[in-house]
Amino acid sequence: MIDKQFDKETFKKSVKDNVKFLYRRKLEEATQEQLFQAVSYTVKDVIIDNWLDTQNAYEEQDPKIVYYMSMEFLMGRALGNNLLNLGAYGEVKEALEELGIDINALEDQEPDPALGNGGLGRLAACFLDSLATLGYSAYGCGIRYRYGMFKQEIRDGYQVEVPDAWLEEGYPFELRRPEYAKEVHFGGYVRVEYDQATGQNKFIHEGYQAVKAIPYDMPIVGYENNIVNTLRIWDAAAIEEFGFDSFDKGDYKKAVEQENLAKDIVNVLYPNDNKMSGKELRLKQQYFFVSASIQAAIEKYKKTHNDIKKLHEKVVFQMNDTHPTMAVAELMRLLMDQEGLGWDDAWAVTTKCVAYTNHTIMAEALEKWPIELFSRLLPRVYQIIEEINRRFIIEVQNRYPGNYEKIKKMAIIYDGQVKMAHLAIVAGFSVNGVARLHTEILKNQELKDFYEMMPEKFNNKTNGITQRRFLLHGNQNLAAWITDHIGPDWITDLSQISKLKVYADDEKALQEFMNIKFQNKQRLAKYILEHNGVEVDPHSIFDVQVKRLHEYKRQLLNILHVIYLYNQIKLHPEMEFYPRTFIFGAKASAAYERAKKIIKLINCVADVVNNDPSIGGKIKVVFIENYRVSNAELIFAAADVSEQISTASKEASGTGNMKFMLNGAPTLGTMDGANVEIVEEVGQENAFIFGMSADQIINYENHGGYDPDFIYNTDAEIRQVLMQLINGTFSSDTELFRDIYDSLLNTKNCSRADQYFILGDFRSYAEAQKRVESAYKDEKKWAKMALLNTACSGKFSSDRTIQEYVDDIWHLDKVTVTKSEAAEK
Ligand code: OAK
After folding, report:
1. What pLDDT score was predicted for residue 2?
2. Which reaction does it catalyse (predicted)?
3. Ligand 1 test: best mutation among 273, 286, 325, most atoms within 8 Å of CB?
4. Ligand 1 centre from 321 Cα, in Å?
5. Domains of the chain (ranges, CATH numbers)
6. How far apart are CA 506 and CA 295, in angstroms?
7. How far apart are CA 195 and CA 207, in angstroms?
8. Does residue 619 register a pLDDT over 70?
9. Which of ligand 1's atoms lies nearest the C-alpha of 272?
10. Does the pLDDT at position 271 exceed 70?
11. Among the atoms of ligand 1, which is closest to the Cα of residue 357?
12. Distinct helix (H) and strand (E) counts, the chain
């Protein structure tokens, strides 16, 4: 609820004032961008009061803090979300209307802070929302990339990457905090000095290059609870301002170097998803934010506590995948070299402070750094890792005497490389996967040796999403309808949404539910017309696959099946066929050639299919440009079918699957990641499951025996589809899709034919698609299915996930914040 100091009139006046003071303009003269800024500053004022109250409450109550360490935070737009969480959206919308301003147009002015690639980064953002809403003290720690995820333009069907200068106009929801700046050191060497007084060696890092880390804080507003947590992202600057000073002193070269180093570190987010980039700069980025964040955490702790050996009682670091794993060695370094602890004490503290989440089993994502690079860039940190490794190998030897295979498989440093996952597991007190199946694969396959040696560390935390962004904000009509039927409790307790189940056979309710879906489909159709110039029929089935483009996610299976359907319709024009709109949205990593070719293929198929009058518009294919959090909200709300078709075992969890479910779209998917748990919640009969199981896939991978050529040779329809890739059907350049064709078969150009079992699952997928069609034709049956998907989505709230992290791993204290009187502010 909006409070007194934030009533409509005050709000309106403040917007007008901001336009005046910021731009020297009257409201009527302001551009949309200026209005966005002015309104955002007004909202930020309110947030700041709550932020201060929160800080005071935390100081009084001294709760344990989780530091969520992540290279990525895919936040999406803040204005609308902040207003909703403040409980002020409705009133602000009205106030703006009275000023002649459309809140939606204003929200569209905001750039999406896209400081992340995909699943891992968006999960971090959902977690921050849940932590604030549940009343836990938390910091997100990351990097303030000057350029976030690139903007995708589609030109002539190809992806073109355009820089995302999200900070260009100034970002209103951040606060620069130079008073908390920290120094981070790279390179140099370590000098060992014997300290007479203590009888200990001292390790002195010298000859390094220093960079200043300057934090920017973004508020994370809890839902109607006065709590505002902080996402702290670090900018880099040279230690000394580059100027005449250094020039005069002859330090010109050094000053330029420092300046460049700083600029480079925070310049750009690496656009890789599920793939490691072995670049030196990436390693610098990792150490940069890890070091600054841990220094800040220790400093904060020491302000009110004097025993560093009890750090773990008030602080926990959660490492979002292995990217921040340097945290282990950096914490050891600070505890020993700065705080004066000996190894054993430092290790005892560290191993109670750090925990690790694994987000993928894709081999190419596993972080391994060459010793040469690592030790050169971070000599002291490397030294500490060597010692951790030395001690760990002794443990392995004691546990498995004479078993050198174990050492080879488990060592942190082996084969000239530092293996970050091994470091995270050895030092972390908790290791978790992100869906039940994924955790089982970690335990029984990928991390088997570690699980055998330290089973107590392993646990599962099935991912979740925030219903506040992906339903309350993204699908406002459905949210209002749900609240009308079951009250508003679902907003902070999604398990309540199961109360909708009583409407599963209520014709009126089902009709209303589907009417809202239809309106959302109209909204998306409008967006597609505006952005793609393609007209789609909102009466057709909206069949959607939006996610990063990766071979394992099998967008290729989807588009090959579209080609197959197209062939069927052309061959049997009389065949009954329910009109379908296949909607894709995906960014490919800039260097991932095959993924980019698949985008081109989708667009080429779209060109042919959408413009072939002989199929009477039965199929449309649309590739939505620049898929990101803001258009995702529209897309989930409008989807009929949720395509979750990864090769079983490869998708650790998926979170898009949960967003579709929440918005009433049944899953068409494999038994992979969290799909397994989705089906468990909603029932087999309300999903469309197909394909090989994870066990079958893993079995083929371990023992061979899969032969896509056999399928090609014996299934004429599949063969036809593949032939069309190289016979000019979709491009006059018959070589354009040769690589894709080759990748599926045992050709001389392909070492692992059809690595992702596309042909193996094709028939099963086509058959599941048939089931989708017949289910959709039965309107009542479909409506019930759709509603039950929403009604059974309760488990997949990130509030549930976070509560599990708190109960099992972090052990945080719950905090309440009461609003101080306006007069005191
Ligand atoms: C990105 C870079 C390196 C390693 C993993 C990722 C990543 O985004 N993984 C994804 O994490 C999501 C959140 O846990 C999961 O839902 C996805 O399945 C997984 O691919």
Report:
1. 45
2. [(1->4)-alpha-D-glucosyl](n) + phosphate = [(1->4)-alpha-D-glucosyl](n-1) + alpha-D-glucose 1-phosphate
3. 273
4. 8
5. 1-61+77-111 (no CATH), 63-76+115-389+418-450 (3.40.50.2000), 467-692+755-796 (3.40.50.2000)
6. 58
7. 21
8. yes
9. 2
10. yes
11. 14
12. 33, 25
